[in-house]
Amino acid sequence: MTQARLNIALCKLNQKVYDVAIDQCERVLETEPRNWKACFRLASAMYQASDKCTKEGSEKDIRAVHNYAQKALDANPNDAKLKDFRDEVKEKFDKFKAEESKAGEQAKEEQNMEGKAEKNTGE
Known about the structure:
Oligomer: single chain
Order of helices and strands: HHHHH
CATH topology: Serine Threonine Protein Phosphatase 5, Tetratricopeptide repeat
Distance between the termini: 71 Å
Number of strands: 0
Number of domains: 1
CATH architecture: Alpha Horseshoe
Number of helices: 5
């Protein structure tokens, strides 16, 4: 059954029917969490479904895509296509993490400024 699901996922991925590809891969991973093909195809489908993680709101997806791509590469480190895909995703993931960190620092700085303003008005 696993091979059939992986084949369906690949066909649907090629047809750009990403929701079905994602579903089939998730079903494989329920019973075989270390199946690298399911991880790779799931990451690919999620990545393509979000326009390579450029759609608004896809920021949260890049973390999952990165994790699945890395899991697949860990299980099959000599696959050049997989490595190239992971590298592309990692570049976007690193950019997302940097932006997330910057936003967190800005929010912390704003909280500090608000705290200082409240302290000054309370005196």
